[in-house]
Specification:
With about 450 residues, the protein is an alpha/beta fold. It has helices at about 5-45, 55-80, 85-105, 110-135, 185-200, 225-230, 250-255, 270-275, 280-285, 290-295, 295-305, 305-315, 320-325, 335-350, 350-360, 375-385, 395-405, 415-425; strands spanning about 140-145, 160-170, 175-180, 215-220, 235-240, 265-270, 330-335, 365-370, 410, 430. The strands form 2 sheets. Strands 1-2-3-4-5 form a 5-stranded mixed sheet, with helices on both faces.
Length: about 450
């Protein structure tokens, strides 16, 4: 290449190098300047106080509202001490009060958002208390239910447990409370449907296998589509606003219809039959029970087994009087296998007075009843559930099956079997009484 080419190329390289160096310096300066600008812009924001008069006033109002609501909860607890879980509602309110107290002096840019969250929570707590005060036969608030009975071998997971805001009508209704200022969030539908799945778990069934009915008690406007989905699912929607005006007043009795009338049939298992004819039961009906316990034959009987002595002591302190408990039932029934087994034991272990008592007072009143061959879907499902129970003798299952399929209250002294059934997810409609044994007199 000619020499002039190198002379002309060299300055270009030097100029390019200088230009590149200048770009590097300019970029550093530019970055430094941008940082200075950002700091300048941020400075007023950092210096601005988060303690605006409006937010501070809202914190003060929150504290006052928490204290007022706490007083109302205490009053409710005093007037209805049987309602379970009120202490949990009160603890939740007091926790919110502590948060509101800290927010008064908090140096947090998200302070206003936190205050809004507290206001929403407090509004929900107030609605839960209103619901528990308004609807009939409330038994619990914030009560937890599971999809299966607890087990020592398999702990319940979070997905297997739900919390019901208010339990009303003696457990027949589960109420989900939702306090909204405007339109109700669409998540309510999924929440209510999930609650319904928990309610339909076998372990949560009401007597005779009937699942609790799910309701939503809410403020705000429910969308037409959401209302239709809830209605199609059989979930009752109760609008709190209708109680305050703008429509017919919400009547708690009609909003939550009572359960069907109490059953009028009593189903007797073998332990109930023993209690009806035993000399011990007959003696408690008289005014001379203490003299009865001093009888030589009774003393000998009580010494044979510890449960005999315990039975006498318990009856002396608090007589069972099973005959009085059965007086309100129009019909007394017993399974054929129960009566066959009872007759055999009465013949071998019962005394003449006990056998005579059966023949003259009870035999004609107790109807032999078999489980119907044709059952509706509910009764058929209940029969299957009872027959699948484990660790319970077949003759006891006969009695339980009859009671559950014929909608009768089962009278039994076998509380362990009733508890075992409940642990396996079958809650029986049973009257558990004290075991009263045949004396042999």
């Amino acid at each position: 290449m000619p020499r002039w080419a190198f002379r002309t190329a060299l300055p270009r390289v030097r100029r390019a190098s200088v230009r590149c160096s200048e770009c590097t310096l300019t970029a550093e300066d530019s970055l430094r300047m941008d940082m200075n600008k950002n700091n300048t812009k941020k400075a007023p924001s950092m210096a601005k106080s988060v303690h605006t008069p409006d937010t501070t006033a809202r914190c003060v109002t929150l504290l006052r509202d928490c204290e007022s609501l706490d007083a109302l909860i205490v009053s409710f607890q005093v007037s209805k001490p049987h309602v379970e879980g009120v202490d949990k509602l009160r603890r939740a309110v007091l926790r919110e009060r502590e948060v509101a107290l800290r927010l008064q002096t908090a140096q947090d840019a998200a302070r206003e958002k936190s205050v809004t969250g507290l206001e929403n929570n407090l509004r929900g707590f107030q609605l839960e208390l209103d619901c528990a005060s308004f609807f009939p036969e409330v038994t619990a608030v914030r009560k937890r239910f599971a999809t299966r009975p607890p087990s020592a071998h398999a702990k319940l997971t979070d997905d297997e447990v739900c919390e019901v805001d208010v339990v009303a009508r003696g457990g027949a209704y589960w109420i989900e409370c939702k306090a909204e200022k405007g339109r109700v969030a669409s998540g309510l539908v999924q929440q209510a449907l999930a609650l319904q799945r928990y309610a339909r778990a076998p372990c949560n069934a009401r007597p005779f296998g009937v699942a609790p009915k799910v309701c939503v008690f809410l403020t705000g406007a429910l969308g037409e589509h959401d209302a239709r989905v809830l209605g199609d699912a059989g979930i009752v929607t109760l609008l709190r606003g209708a109680r305050d005006g703008g429509g017919a007043a919400l009547d708690p009795e009609s909003a939550l219809p009572p359960e069907p009338a109490p059953v009028t049939t009593a189903n007797l298992d073998i332990t109930a039959l023993f209690a009806l004819v035993s000399e011990v039961a007959a003696a408690t009906a008289s005014d001379d029970f203490e003299t009865f316990t001093e009888h030589k034959a009774i003393k000998e009987w009580s010494l044979k087994k510890p449960q005999h002595a315990a039975c006498l002591s318990a009856e002396l302190a608090d007589p069972t009087r099973l005959d009085q408990a059965l007086a309100r039932y129009k019909r007394l029934v017993a399974h054929p296998s129960v009566l066959i087994r009872f007759a055999k034991i009465l013949r071998t272990s019962g005394g003449p007075r006990e056998r005579e008592r059966w023949e003259t007072l009870w035999r004609a009143r107790v109807e032999v009843l078999e489980v119907p061959l044709e059952l509706d879907s509910r009764a058929a499902a209940r029969k299957t559930q009872v027959r699948a129970l484990e660790r319970i003798a077949n003759h006891q299952l006969d009695a339980f099956e009859l009671g559950e399929t014929c909608v009768a209250k089962t009278f039994t002294a076998n509380g362990r079997a009733v508890q075992s059934a409940a642990e396996q997810g079958v809650v029986l409609d049973a009257h558990v009484h004290r075991a009263i044994w045949l004396v042999g007199l």
